[in-house]
């Protein structure tokens, strides 16, 4: 277990609860899920009801920052809606005619067409949100990054790619803190704006659980692929917030690996059965 001062700084950064190292459990049994696929990463889960953290790879979780990739669509959506650049989740932006491809090389049929915000968020279509960012503008975007204290905050490259090119970076604990505040309408946006984005994050909903998340996929400066899943699992109306961050060789299918790892971890921890 890390020192009290280090953990206090880490927990304070999340603004989640009073700082106590007793609330953090490092679970190295989760390492096997990363090892099985030959990837490195970290996982954190916060039980909101009990105020407890379960974390694998604590140093990566609290100390290392990475490009947010498409997880930035959470913030881009909030800012777009708040400023009126996105009217609502049904607002359509015309396809620019550029054929885009998935990480595995397949044609991205779901992206290569006119899209609503809802469709762009669900399919993680970058070009829609690049246009939204251009409409928001650099000055306004910067003011919101400062207000949210989002990651490293700086826009040092282009307004339509700074979250994709490793110029803006964010830590896993900051990602988890953001989605927790979104869930409870604690971000500096209107309730309506937060409601829209929160609903868009729901990926699975059944009698046992609600699983909500946003994914991200990009490449580090060294060429390795990096992926995220940030969100919450809700059972019996009790939310539990999580962040999964992993990296591996770009030849690996991290898009499918990340979901397998997330669900394997959640099942080991007792989730997805409606008993939490």
What topology emerges from the helices and strands here?
Layout: H1 4-12, E1 24-26, H2 31-35, E2 40-47, E3 52-56, H3 58-63, E4 65-66, H4 73-83, E5 92-93, E6 115-116, H5 117-123, H6 126-136, H7 138-148, E7 170-171, H8 172-183, H9 191-200, E8 202-205, E9 210-219, E10 225-235, E11 238-248, H10 254-268
Parallel strand pairs: 1-3
Antiparallel strand pairs: 2-3, 2-11, 4-7, 5-6, 8-9, 9-10, 10-11
Helix pairs in contact: 4-6
Descriptive account of the structure:
The chain has one domain: Beta-lactamase. It has helices spanning 4-12, 31-35, 58-63, 73-83, 117-123, 126-136, 138-148, 172-183, 191-200, 254-268; strands at 24-26, 40-47, 52-56, 65-66, 92-93, 115-116, 170-171, 202-205, 210-219, 225-235, 238-248. Strand 2 (40-47) and strand 3 (52-56) form a beta hairpin. Helix 4 crosses helix 6. It is globular. The strands form three sheets. Strands 1-3-2-11-10-9-8 form a seven-stranded mixed sheet, sandwiched between helices. With 276 residues, the chain is of the alpha+beta class. It contains ten helices and eleven strands.
**For the record, what CATH class applies?**
Alpha Beta
Q: Please write the string of helix (H) and strand (E) elements.
A: HEHEEHEHEEHHHEHHEEEEH
Unreliably modeled segments? 1-19
Mean model confidence by pLDDT = 92
CATH topology assignment: Beta-lactamase
CATH superfamily annotation = DD-peptidase/beta-lactamase superfamily
Structural class: alpha+beta
């Amino acid at each position: 277990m890390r020192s009290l001062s280090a953990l206090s700084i880490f927990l304070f950064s999340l603004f989640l609860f009073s700082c106590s190292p007793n609330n953090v459990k490092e679970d190295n049994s989760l390492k096997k899920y990363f090892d099985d696929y030959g990837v490195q990463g970290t996982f954190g889960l916060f039980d909101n009801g009990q105020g407890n953290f379960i974390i694998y790879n604590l140093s990566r979780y609290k100390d290392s920052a990475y490009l947010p990739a498409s997880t930035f669509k959470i913030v881009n959506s909030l800012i777009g809606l708040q400023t009126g650049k996105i009217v609502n989740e049904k607002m359509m932006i015309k396809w620019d005619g550029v054929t885009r491809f998935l990480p595995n090389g397949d044609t991205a049929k779901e992206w290569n067409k006119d899209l609503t915000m809802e469709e762009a968020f669900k399919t993680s279509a970058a070009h829609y949100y690049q246009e939204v960012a251009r409409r928001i503008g650099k000055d306004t975007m910067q003011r919101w990054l400062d207000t949210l204290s989002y990651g490293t905050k700086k826009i040092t490259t282009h307004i339509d790619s700074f979250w994709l090119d490793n110029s803006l970076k964010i830590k896993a604990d900051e990602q988890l803190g953001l989605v927790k505040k979104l869930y409870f309408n604690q971000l500096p946006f209107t309730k309506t704006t937060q409601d829209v984005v929160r609903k868009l994050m729901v990926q699975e909903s059944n009698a046992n659980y609600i699983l909500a998340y946003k994914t991200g996929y990009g490449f580090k400066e060294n060429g390795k692929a990096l992926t995220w899943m940030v969100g919450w699992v809700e059972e019996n109306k009790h939310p539990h917030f999580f962040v999964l961050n992993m990296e591996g060789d770009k030849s690996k299918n991290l898009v499918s690996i990340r979901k397998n790892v997330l669900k394997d971890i959640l099942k080991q921890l007792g989730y997805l059965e409606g008993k939490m």
